[in-house]
């Protein structure tokens, strides 16, 4: 079988086609302190400057060895776009949303006519960083664009009342989801226009275990489907990551048409594979208790365990975002295990 470029290999796998071996990628957060020190580019500054964001994202490939480059590192730029107050991150910690802006549908009116490419917004920093990376690596490497999913964005802009709102104010909840999904589609396609060839949707609070099957089917599936359909129309495969134990929700999650589902360490990989029909399962080394807090020998052993559970029907990857203090050698042990797995 002919040798593939990393871009060809990942896209073929995501499309369910045969390849020579497993791609070695991470679809969640990739930044670490080791990489920051290696390229002299650090959080939080790198989150706000396109050249720095690109340089640090590139380090996931040049320093660690991932066969893809993923941006950005955090999931707050979207809420910040709409005026939510953000607590800035540190060298070791990502930023977080601390103040919300929507209490009624009237609060959406000031956002009419928004532009995701607005140079005054951090979304434009992400778009420019993707362009920098695509211009340099786009023929060879997959550039993985990413953003928070529409359900979690709805929670970011409305606050913790969101979970009660979808249960007691259906019309309001669906209208908010229409709004955040429209934004998600515009932003995702802008990333594709900038050079993203694969897309990662991070929707941590859109959890089957949090809201149950009925609400997931009504408030998540159709909106994820709209977003994924838009990406597929552009020929871009998509992976969906939702935190927590998603085992019993995987079959429902797959109905949105997503190409791959990233599962965290609370999910048994073999069980996950058995729950889906077509979707690739991505995961699921524990980012804390394996990748960060153990050694190379343990990472190798855990990688072999997960690879056996995936049984050629998934990708070895962290179960969630990489902890910023994770040693490079541990990540490289996972990467080598993935690269040595042949289909």
TrEMBL record:
Residues 5-341 form the Uroporphyrinogen decarboxylase (URO-D) domain. NCBIfam families: methylcob_mtaseMtbA (NF041608), mtaA_cmuA (TIGR01463), PRK06252.1 (NF004889). Its cofactor is Zn(2+). This is Methylamine-specific methylcobalamin:coenzyme M methyltransferase. One of its GO terms (biological process) is methylation. Keywords: Metal-binding, Methanogenesis, Methyltransferase, Transferase, Zinc. One of its GO terms (molecular function) is dimethylamine methyltransferase activity. It comes from the Archaea. Pfam families: URO-D.
């Amino acid at each position: 079988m002919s040798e593939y470029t990393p871009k060809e290999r990942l896209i073929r796998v995501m499309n369910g086609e045969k390849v020579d071996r497993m791609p070695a990628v991470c679809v969640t957060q990739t930044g670490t302190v080791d990489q920051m020190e290696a390229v002299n580019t650090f959080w939080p500054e790198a989150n706000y400057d396109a050249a720095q964001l690109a340089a640090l994202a590139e380090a996931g490939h040049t320093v660690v060895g991932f066969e893809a480059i993923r941006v950005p590192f955090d999931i707050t730029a979207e809420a910040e776009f709409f005026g939510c107050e953000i607590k800035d991150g540190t060298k070791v910690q990502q930023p977080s949303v601390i103040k919300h802006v929507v209490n009624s549908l009237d609060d959406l009116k000031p956002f009419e006519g928004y532009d995701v490419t607005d140079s005054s917004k951090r979304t434009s920093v992400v778009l420019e960083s993707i362009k920098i990376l695509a211009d340099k690596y786009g023929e060879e490497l997959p550039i993985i664009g990413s953003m928070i999913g529409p359900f979690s964005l709805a929670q970011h802009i409305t606050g913790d009342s969101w979970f009660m709102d979808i249960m007691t104010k259906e019309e309001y909840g669906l209208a908010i989801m229409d709004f955040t999904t429209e934004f998600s589609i515009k932003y995702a396609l802008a990333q594709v226009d900038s050079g993203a060839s694969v897309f990662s949707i991070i929707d941590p609070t859109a959890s089957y275990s949090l809201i149950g099957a009925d609400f997931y089917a009504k408030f998540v599936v159709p909106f994820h489907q709209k977003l994924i359909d838009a990406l597929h129309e552009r020929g871009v495969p998509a992976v969906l990551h939702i935190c927590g134990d998603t085992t019993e929700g995987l079959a429902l999650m797959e109905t949105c048409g997503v190409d791959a589902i990233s599962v965290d360490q609370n999910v048994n990989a073999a069980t996950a594979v058995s729950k889906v029909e077509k979707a690739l399962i991505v995961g699921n080394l524990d980012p804390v208790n394996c990748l960060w807090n153990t050694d190379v020998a343990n990472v190798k052993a855990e990688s072999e365990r997960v690879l056996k559970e995936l049984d050629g029907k998934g990708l070895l990857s962290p179960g969630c975002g990489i902890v910023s203090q994770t040693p490079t050698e541990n990540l490289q042990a996972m990467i080598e295990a993935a690269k040595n797995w042949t289909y």
